[in-house]
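Database export, one record per block. Field names are fixed; values are copied verbatim from the stored entry.
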Amino acid sequence: MFEKLKANARRLKSEVYALYLACRDPGTPWCAKILAGLVVAYALSPIDLIPDFIPVLGQLDDLILVPAGIALVLRMVPPGIMASCRERAAIELVGKRLVSRPAAVVVVLLWLAGAVAVIRALIAV
């Protein structure tokens, strides 16, 4: 069972990188590029929008949001482009660790904006 989970994680990592490559492909429609960019940024961000220490919700965001986003983007990207991106991802991913620091900065900024909004609301009361 553990080996199956590891294989699924490797496949998901490869799929996320293939979406990143599809974002950069000129044949990908612009709306798919935007959504794929958001999905890739969230998937590769070392910081979650909903922290994992929050019971149930912390794990559900990773288990639902990322696969649902990937499934949606896969419907938007032409199959030929996605096939070539998957081939490139399989070759380029050997020995790489995927992390997006810019995505982490965006998540931190969202949390800070939320904290400022809550503080302002508390002061106004």
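Remark 1: The chain has a mean pLDDT of 82.
Remark 2: The longest helix spans residues 101-124.
End of record.
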